Task: structure prediction
Amino acid sequence: MPWLVTDFDTDEILEAEGDIDARWSPCSTFKIPLALMGFDSGILHDAKNPVWPFAANYEARVPVMLESWRQSFDPMGWMHHSCLWYSQVITETLGAEKFAHYLREFDYGNGDISGDPGKNNGLTNSWLVSSLQISPREQVQFLRRLLLLQLPVSESALAKTAPLIFAGDLAGGRMFGKTGSGYTDRAAGKQRGWFIGWCERGQRRLLFAALVDHEGPGFAGHRARALMTDVLEKLVSNSEDVG
Result:
């Protein structure tokens, strides 16, 4: 279960465990770069717009259609419910050329958006346990560039994305993050899941990424969030400098 926590200002690794350089699919953590692309390009307007309705043909192109996704969504609902088809509408609206351009400029993981071999689905599925992969260390590096305004998107895109991933209060501060889960063996119910983001208290920020394996009911991403929340609470509470 690789994970790490870094200091935003110094880029120092404060705590880490496991192989933080091993890459895996970003799954729904990819909604963070997708939100940046969407707001920067004008496809997404604000937390409540646009509202897109569910369509029956979305069923065929998602690995699993959750019942909670069978409704209309705005950007806030998309992120809260981690709705896959909304993500796919964003990438299809961007188009393959612009999507590829953003990923190159983001220097995101291995940058491979070819998708599943022979299926020509990179535009809609490359981040779904497919060709695109990223390591915990790279997730944190991406978030650091985001917060340093070093990504080729507008400050407005960041300002509109952050509220969508607000994850609650933490040890006197605030946490922002996104989970993501995918099957490593669907028949056996085995999953791998992420929780990535940052927490802030006063002027200090800590960046984090965790990747955990899970078997059984629930989602691996939720387990990753529980692990990381516990680590962060202890780290923040024991540090007089965080504040």
